[in-house]
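The instructor's notes for this session suggest beginning with a concrete chain rather than abstract definitions. Hand out the sequence below and ask the class to guess, before any prediction is shown, which regions might be ordered.
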Amino acid sequence: MLKIRYRMLNMVVSMLEYAVFMLKFFMKMLNPLNASEQTGDAEEWC
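After discussion, reveal the predicted structure:
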C-alpha cells in the first residue's frame, strides 16, 4: 500500500511541476514585453 501511495504522490508532484512550467510558458507567450520581469518574479516566487 505504501509503495502505491508514494507513487501516486510522486505523480501528483510531477504534474504540479509541469503545470507551473506551462503557466510560466503561457505568461511569456501572453506578455512578451513583460517576459523578463515575470520570469524574475516567478524565480523569486518559487
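Then share the key points. The CA atoms of residues 28 and 35 lie 5 Å apart. The mean pLDDT is 80.
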